[in-house]
Structure formats: structure tokens, C-alpha cells
Amino acid sequence: MATTKDVLESAKAELNKAIRGEIDTEDVPEAVGRKKLELEDKILRYFQNKEIERERKEENKILFEEIEAFFQDLETDEDLVLQLPNGEYAVLALKAYVKDIFDKDSLAQELLIAKDELKTPFDYSILTSQGKLTPDMISKHTQTETVVKVRLSKRKTKPKAKKK
């Protein structure tokens, strides 16, 4: 299958041949017209594929939410392993993530400055060099949060059972 670049190169070559007199100029408009139709078809298929991709992405999002709700209703600590038709394995598991949340608003209030003055690493370095900002202040305004999410992944080999 010819790529769009190939189609354009071919049309350009046809025009150059006509200019040099190697082919009859009456054939050029027809050849260019065909190339233009091919290009329009490729553009149309491209945008159709993009639309299908968006629809599939939305459908997968809804499916994952349903899977997530079903798995949480099971109330199990074990991973769910399902063999797929192609021989691979789908693994549905709970995964815990540790997340640090930095509260710029409260730090800005403590430093008595506007929140906008805490945007870049350069801002933090200037406040640190001036002695206004200390590592203890950063630690004080950082909370650690554990987030548990359902994770769905595909593996080529059967996962081993977790040790308790």
C-alpha cells in the first residue's frame, strides 16, 4: 500500500515528466486527479481511524470502571488471573502507591508570600539562599498518602501465587 508521501512523490514525478516533455500533457491532469483522489481517500481513512480510536478509548474506560467495581465487590486480597485466548494471562490486582502531596498554599501563607512566587525550582532556591525556606518547612507541608488502585495487566507467563 502506498503511503501519502509516495502518492505525492508520484504526482510530482508525473508533473516533472510532463514539463520535460517525456509524456503527453493531456494525461497529466488525469494522473494528478487520480493521485489527489488517493490522497483524499487516505486523509478520510486517517480521520475515520482517529474517530474509531476515540470511541474504543471511551469504551475501554467504561469497561475498566465496571471491572474495577466488580473486583472491589469481590472483596478479595488475591489477584485474579485469567488465561486469554492467545495463551497470555490477564492479571487483575490491587496496587498500592505512595504519593507525596505538597501544599504550596500553606507554605506560601507561612512564608507570607503570594503562591505565584512558588512556581519554579529557581523560586525555591532563591528563598532557600535567603534563609526563608528550610527543608523542615518543606517536610512540614508535605503529606504522604497511600492510594490503592485496581491494576489490569497482561503477562506472557502465568504469574506465581503471592506468598502470605
Oligomer: single chain
Strand content: 15-25%
Rg from alpha-carbon coordinates: 30 Å
| Helix share bin | 40-55%
Instruction: Give a quick account of the main beta sheet: strands, pairing sense, barrel closure.
Output: 3 strands, antiparallel
Beta strands, count: 3
Shape: flat
- Order of strands in the sheet with most strands: 1-2-3
User: What string gives the helices and strands in order?
Assistant: HHEEHHHE
Structural class comes to: alpha+beta
Low-confidence stretches: none
Q: What is the residue-mean pLDDT, rounded to a whole number?
A: 85
How many DSSP H or I helices?
Answer: 5
Alpha-carbon distance between the termini? Answer: 55 Å
List the SSEs and their pairings.
Elements: H1 4-20, H2 27-74, E1 80-83, E2 89-102, H3 104-111, H4 121-129, H5 135-140, E3 142-155
Antiparallel strand pairs: 1-2, 2-3
Structure overview:
With 164 residues, the protein is an alpha+beta fold. The chain has a domain at 1-75. It is built from 5 helices and 3 strands, in the order ααββαααβ. It has a 3-stranded antiparallel sheet. β1 and β2 form a beta hairpin. α1 packs antiparallel against α2 (27-74). The chain is flat and about 80 Å long.
Gist?
This protein is 54% helix and 20% strand. With 164 residues, it is α+β, with helices and mostly antiparallel strands. A hairpin with a 5-residue loop joins strand 1 and strand 2.
Note the main attributes of this structure.
single chain, about 160 residues, alpha+beta, three-stranded antiparallel sheet, about 55% helix
